[in-house]
Amino acid sequence: MTGSETAVPWLTILALLPVVGAVVVLLVPKGSALPKLVALGFSVVALVVTVAMAVQFDADGGFQFVEQYNWIESFGAHYAVGLDGLGLVLVLLTAILTPVVILASWHDADGGRWSANSFFGWILALEALSIGVFAATDVFLFYVLFEATLIPIYFLIGGFGGPQRSYAAVKFLLYSLFGGLLMLASVVGLYVVSAGNEGGSSYLLEDLMATDIGTSTGRWLFLGFFIAFAVKAPMWPVHTWLPDAASEATSGTSVLLVSVLDKIGTFGMMRFCLNIFPEASRWATPVVITLAVISVIYGALLAIGQQDMRRLIAYTSVSHFGFIVLGIFAMTSQGQSGAALYMFNHGLSTAALFLVTGFLISRRGSKMIDDYGGVEKVAPVLAGTFLLAGLSSLSLPGLSPFVSEFLVLAGTFTVSIPAAVIATLGTVLAALYILYMYQRTMTGPVRPSTAKLPDLRAREVVALAPLLLLIVVLGFFPKPALDALNPTVDRLLQQVGMEDPQPTVASEEGGS
Amino acid sequence: MTAHTSTLASRLAAEAFNKPDIDYGKLSPLLIVFGVALVGVLVEAFAPRDRRYVIQTAVSIVGLAAALAAVVVVGLNVQSNHGGASLGSVEAMGAIAVDGPSLFIWGTVLIFSLMSVLLFAERQLEGGITAFAGQAAALPGTEAEREASSRGIEHTEVFPLMLFAIGGMMLFASANDLLTMFVALEVLSLPLYLLCGLARRRRLISQEAALKYFLLGAFSSAFFLYGIALVYGYAGSFRLGDIDTAVSSTVGGNGLLLAGMALMAVGLLFKVSAAPFHAWTPDVYQGAPTAVTAFMAACTKVAAFGALLRVFYVALGGVRWDWQPMMWVIAALTMAIGSIVAITQTDIKRMLAYSSVAHAGFLITGFVGAQQGIEVAGQQISSLQAVMFYLVAYGFTTIGAFAVVTVVRDAGGETTHLSRWAGLGKEAPVVAGVFAFFLLAFAGIPLTSGFTGKWAVFTSAWAGGAWPLVVVAVLMSVVAAFFYVRVIVVMFFSDPVGDGPTVAVPSILTTITITVGAAMTLLLGVVPQPVFDLARAAGEFIR
Amino acid sequence: MSATPFLILSALLFGVGAVGVLVRRNAIVVFMCVELMLNAANLAFVTFSRQHGNFDGQIAAFFVMVVAAAEVVVGLAIIMTIFRTRRSASVDDASLLKY
Amino acid sequence: MIAFWVLAPVMVVAAVAMVMARKAVHCALLLAVIMISLAVLYAVQNAPFLFAVQIIVYTGAVLMLFLFVLMLVGVDSSDSLVETLRGQRVAAVVLGLLFGLLVVVALSQATLGTVVGLSAASEQADGNVKGIAALLFSTYVFAFEVTSALLITAALGAMVLAHRERLTPKPTQREMVAQRMRDYATSGVHPGALPNPGSFARHNSVDTPALLPDGTPSELSISRVMRARGTVRDVSRDRLTERGIETETRQIEEGER
Predict the structure, then answer these.
(1) Which residues of chain C lie closer than 8 angstroms to D108, CB-CB?
(2) pTM
């Protein structure tokens, strides 16, 4: 678990860059394109730094770019950051999506009650906090940043978007606070449990992993963490905030919410639940797998019935998160590698889907599927990107989500055949909801109201292009990502004390 | 018990009268505050009316700063006892404990008082006069009142009254015998009763607040007194240390002690506004002038918790198992009532009052853990430290929040109705943003002092075995978060009603208070360690 | 004589006073009931003082009397203010009364 | 001993009566009974100093202050000022009884041991008063000094709430007359004194309005306060009808004849 200290504080720089950006954005004059340009500039620089850092990453090197300082000694809290494969992939996802979202939301905040400055300022703040969350190796630091992410996203949902946004924002916040405060109870419990350690309480992940937590205590504490992450992820039955929030927020906010923030839930399960509470994780596996399978099917079924495109995508995400959780708790190297990769891929594909529908909605002014028809004839590029994003969402072979979904199912199959079979049903339903939506909006006769829809503009194409490119490339060539993830997953399984029923080499299957 | 009487009798015999031995240096913070209060009274008597305001403000600020400096000096020179388990000594013939926690609380109270004095002295918001009644004796709505107002007459007596209250608070938290504690309780209460009734605007509800506070306060101090009587009956002495000796030397429970303990708890819990003794809090907080509310909410709570902890940890620590269940119930009830009732409030001050009730519950949660310094290992925090930290964090946030309430106004003075705050975020983004920040701190969102404070008291409770209480506290935090968030929604996401609220530009005094409050709320959220170090250095209560 | 009868008397007085505070609605009477409670406490102090054979209890009773005196002044001043306000609430200007 | 058994029932009865009495003055007087009885009980229990203080301070000063304020606000005042919850009364009584029972049981169960008595302590300290003084000025000296803060607060508070400073110089007789004449000149207000209240055979108090020549009551003859309070006596029924007056006059005339 120990990593190498780093000479350059990469992660601190990376987290501070957007913070500085946010402050600058708030200071520049309102009403011009300047704040947007500044925001874009900072997010692109952050992306460049991330890539520069990722290049130096050594897949087998454990935690890297480690920084560790005492923060609050009385709490045993540290400022401790570091990245393993999983963290790196998610930081990369955050860094990629932020400039994309800024570019795609160029005009979304214009003419609202709040200035565009605050919109882009909050986005950058969110980027900073998300990077911090994925990099934190101290539970206290993680918790603090985890809760702090609520503030920017709360103002992003509540300040910009549809008429019901205030309600959606409050609902989101209360769900998250409920989960978060339950987790606080567990965090407090961890402190008390680790008090007996040599050198007193510590929140460092490595110290907690070495702590012997009693069985029943461990299970209770696990529950606190797990419920918080399940709310975040979101899993059935605590998912109901997501459709409201995604439906009311702007598409850029939805992307950040679903593609980045919700990943904290699944990330937290892998990073903290499994590492700190291996026994409790094994104990909870049957229930969690059941919930995950329910999420897969429930999300898919509800998605089919949706009229509102944003709600539909939100429900597909519930289904996809079901897959991710399923992969994590299958406790096989395939399943977990797949789940980790799925987080990245789902981020890309859902982001693409949200953005394309966002472009569509901004043209016509309606979220309802029935208001569209025959769009592919008037706006072929838009329809094409919509199709590509949709196909990636239903995990078409050759596109990146397929690899991860396949790995998850294969990993699950070796442990629980019924779960794998039912989850596979989810993929069929996925085809149904995506194609059904495509058929109703894009094909058919051109409606009078959609007859004059302009096609995608250059800015919008530029925003979407990197996402679609990555989806295709990773679909055929997922090896670099899997190489980064596999050592992490192996260590994780070792900590949980599980072994694969039948050893397989995950990276080979990925290419097929 | 008989052993006591014999020692006492022999003491009386040996020293028919001994000159009291008082170390004035160590008591200097207290003496400075009382002395400055007396100076204030003299200023009232001799200074011309138009100069009093300036003189009183200056005297109060300088006096409080001097007292604070004295606290620092005394703190740097305290001796340590029992290998560092506690600091300081018992002074004034055993009446006052000048120990680490006392000094910590003195310092805290003085800092909050300095911030409150600035609010008391604010003149710009009312167009050149303070927020206190021009002539309290003039009937509301009469020609005499208007005349007093138009002539710019103001009651500068509020400054000495406030100083007396501060002196009482400091004494209350450091009293080492129950009798001194009772006197201190009255010294801190009487000026507060008076201050509550002196609002310039809405005088009727202000006077009603004073009456309610007075009657219920007197009622509760009668309970406190009867409790003292019973405990005295049990132990034969008022000294906390002697009571502790009596408690630990007798085996088994005793009706007298338990009844006395319960009655004393009523008096103390009243002052910290814990349920079911919180009924006065919303009315008084709403009716009192906002500056006084800020002062009461922060300082009284600090002092009362200081006294509560001292009585229960020092004198009654031996019967911890008897009072802990009672406090469990009180803590849960207080949090529940404070949080749930706050949801239905439509007045900001009232809502903050219920929030203060809820916070009292969180503080009691930390208190029931009853983890003594010697029981915790390494860098861990004891219950005393947790509660003291929470008090510091809560005080800064509360004073800041009430200070913001004073600047949101319309033609009729402060607009405290929630609906009138709609759209404030658009009108005055900075003020609304700062207030939202305070609310987030109350809700316990990370990176604010509220979070670190909550964390500290929850840990203390859990380490003391009260984990179910922690779960209740967490659930109540969610409920509480709801109404804080509601205010944020109103401020930022609702459209203003009518003209909407206006934010008056306050003078530098209120600005300083708000800035300090906000800055400390942030600092204690991000780098709380120095305050924890200070609390650790303060050690435990002296016995 | 045993201390118990005195203590029971004091408890009774205290209880009656407490009930009075809760039951009565006239502020002055409520305050009188509080005074009754303080007096009951004083009786307990004096009795315990005799019980333990030290003067501390008597000192306490003495302090209570001083405190009560101050409290009465403040309390009655507040009550007076309220009474005057309420009384004149129907008549808007006291200084314009019949001369 | 005898004093206790005589006084205890009196005190309890007085206390209960005090809570039940409807008039505030009765409450105050009953409280006086309790306080004086208490003073006697102090004397019985070796506390002569407190006996004196109780009489002088409590009964003499505190209670008199109560009575004084009662007189100021009106003896028959029964304003309800404390907003109480509905249905609280019964709950309060029940709670109070439970509480009393609890304390009584706790006290009677408590193992108090033998009474030490104060004779030894008094002897050593050379008397009760000296013993108290020695303790007061040594052990409790700080608390004693702090009570001065209480007293100052009380004085300050009473002054703030009750003392009204005269902001304008008091008008002299001459100024008042001049003002009155000016008023008469500008608005025609009658410059003379207002009419007196009515003086009749049956009533001549200030609440009886004087009658105008046409038989209607004069508004000006009654204080505005009384009108506002609605305590003006209705004289319409006392007024005799015209015919009645004629009859009466005739009877009188006839009688005289």
Answers:
(1) 4, 8
(2) 0.88
